[in-house]
Amino acid sequence: MAKRIEDFTIRENRRLSNDIFVLEISGNSYLPELRPGQFVEVRIDGSPETFLRRPLSIHDVDRDTNSIKLLVQIAGKGTEKLSMLKTGEKINIIYPLGNSFSMPEENEHFLLVGGGCGVAPLLFLAKHLLVQGYSPEILLGFRNRDRIIELDEYQSIGPVYLTTEDGSKGEKGYVTSHSVLKNEHFDRIYCCGPHSMLQAVAGYCQRNNTECEVSLENLMACGIGVCLCCVVDTVRGNLCTCTDGPVFNIKELKW
Ligand SMILES: Cc1cc2nc3c(=O)[nH]c(=O)nc-3n(C[C@H](O)[C@H](O)[C@H](O)COP(=O)(O)OP(=O)(O)OC[C@H]3O[C@@H](n4cnc5c(N)ncnc54)[C@H](O)[C@@H]3O)c2cc1C
Ligand code: FES
Quick one: residue 232, left, alpha or beta (phi over 0 = left, psi -120 to 50 = alpha)? Predict the structure, then answer.
């Protein structure tokens, strides 16, 4: 898939909490085909310390407004700079990058699992699955009720199962302790979130004979397979998370 380097315009920069925001950006030319799991590399302008672009998942796509949404958690200087962008300002991105989640097979019972701001690629995946005629079920985990984001969006797509670590909303604990995973068998799980969560979900899938794809967020620089700073150890040898991933079947990963 051809990569583009383009200026987008900020349509909206909406705060969801003190460190999480959604950037809605619109392109001047028609958006190409975009697939769930893919990401963009954002140039951070006016910040000499952050000369490397920052990778961000495609959170949502709106063809009517020709726009992409990015769900961003402030982690350092680059994301903080992005949090200050105002409507009408420009942002330069390279996209679409990386591979994508595969579609379920016919009659497969599947679940989307996400935690914290790591849920970013799940919304686009859930909407895409719905449009393709599937019925997504979604399991989300957050630290506490104040950290829950975009619940309504997911509830408008399908059944949502919820956990918080302190039990302030939904079931108490991590996503892997939710009763839905004990009471039902899933043929396939799609997962994104913190590394420890990916590993815990992968363990569950191995024990329960469940196909599982995870989206990795390894440190990246170039985003196009040149610098090799994002390599991941797999049964096929060292692969680049940016070009061979970020989505991997857990059977491929050595972790
Ligand atoms: C494929 C991919 C998709 C991503 N999608 C999203 C997304 O949709 N929303 C989002 O908020 N973040 C996402 N990230 C993580 C995001 O790229 C980093 O948080 C960001 O680059 C940090 O930049 P910074 O300048 O703000 O912080 P820095 O000053 O560069 O780093 C601050 C801290 O964040 C850590 N960090 C830097 N890069 C990463 C990374 N790739 N993963 C985890 N920790 C990192 C650093 O080690 C450091 O501790 C994604 C990462 C990848 C690889
Ligand atoms: S980020 Fe440079 S090779 Fe992957």
Answer: beta
